[in-house]
From TrEMBL:
It comes from Candidatus Methanofastidiosum methylothiophilum. The chain crosses the membrane at residues 12-34. Residues 137-367 form the OBG-type G domain. Keywords: GTP-binding, Membrane, Nucleotide-binding, Transmembrane, Transmembrane helix. The lineage of its organism: Archaea, Methanobacteriati, Methanobacteriota, Stenosarchaea group, Candidatus Methanofastidiosia. This is GTPase CgtA.
Amino acid sequence: MELKNWLNTIFLYLSYSPILFSKLNIFLNLNFFLIDINKSFISKCRFWLDIMPSNVTPEYLKAEDAYKLAKSPKEKLAALELMLSTIPKHKGTEKMQLQIKRNLSKLKKEVEKEKELKKGGTGGSGATFFVRKEGAAQVALVGLPNSGKSTLLNKLTGKDVEIGNYAFTTVKPIPAMLPYKGIQIQLVDMPGLIEGVSLGKGMGGPLISAIRAVDAILILIDLSVDPVKDLEIILSELEAKGLRINKKVPNIDIEKIPTGGIEIIGENFLVDCTPQDVRKILMEERVHNAIITIKENVTLTDIFEVLDSSLEYKKAIIVGTKGDLPGSREGLEKIQNHVKNFKIIPVSAINNVNIDILPSEIFSILGIIRVYTRSPGGKIDNEAMPMKIDSTALDAAKKVHKTLYKNFKFARVWGDSAKFEGQRVGPEHVLRDGDIIEIHV
Ligand SMILES: Nc1nc2c(ncn2[C@@H]2O[C@H](COP(=O)(O)OP(=O)(O)OP(=O)(O)O)[C@@H](O)[C@H]2O)c(=O)[nH]1
Ligand SMILES: [Mg+2]
């Protein structure tokens, strides 16, 4: 026991004195000797020195040892998952939990990339679910098997996709156009999403890749069964694959600069971490010189998120299906109480309830406006140009033709953005949905 305490003191001393440690070879050798004779003891010391959380359990320490000794990515994954499940969940370990989650997601991505390379890039069944974009935007119908996706697609677009009262009636994405007030929105009926899809189950990688590519999502939930459970499955599977649904991109600006180190503007907005924590994370991500501007309260998770370029932020609405079936009223109440950041529209495709309001609801999450062009002779185009919200008169000119953009002099505008019909405006004039624009060169 005394010897162990003595060794412990030396090891702690060595760990805290890297300069001395590097100069004295004899100590260095002793350190290696110590590592050999008591690996787990030393790893425990290191653990406490590095992070010092409170109350970690022996199970956690065991998992951490397993992680350090793990050789294959699979072993590392298993150990990290065990670390995450055994680490006590309280405030003192929040940073550790985040770090583990981060390592876990990095490792999962690596493992998957390798798998995809081996399988020839499709990441699962070997199928590719790529759907060429057409129209103003591409919107996916995502839901568990049998939730009523194909039925709704048929109702909205007049298509005749096969419907069946069994899982996986649809086995590949099916696009169909939805006309909406002068523009065309492309809906894509997706095969059913099942629990474990993020790990390659069901339609696996191809399905997730197809969902990643769309502009917005309709989440279809059968209201008559267990809507809260179904929604949680869908959201957690998408989340696991880096899809953030109805979440705001954290308001953190990272401007990389050639030299000068890391400057943080707005340190007072850091909620659960210190500027040192942020610097540490940036260094780990190989960001050594940057100006970080924070304008509202942010957490350490937010910092991780903005640094993760693989994340996709998508807007979605929930469509509660089968509103005509028994139990659907209770189901709707349950899901309404469960989620706050989603609009929920209950429908019945069979009884044609609320189907007519869906096109405008879909349009509202696309972040686009419709702009009609008018020739100086007074003829207004039947089809509208879809444009991003906050587009200007000059943006519209650019979209019509590059000569209009290059020689733009002024425009006349009719509609919500104009103070009066046919108002003469400059290039910076911001357009609104439904505006008519006449460009003069
Ligand atoms: N009562 C009722 N049944 C519906 C409604 N919508 C769809 N269904 C039924 O639900 C079953 C599944 O419908 P589908 O449209 O094939 O479901 P899906 O989500 O496309 O299914 P997969 O392609 O297998 O993922 C069919 O028997 C439909 O008739 C609805 O509004 N009310
Ligand atoms: Mg279907």
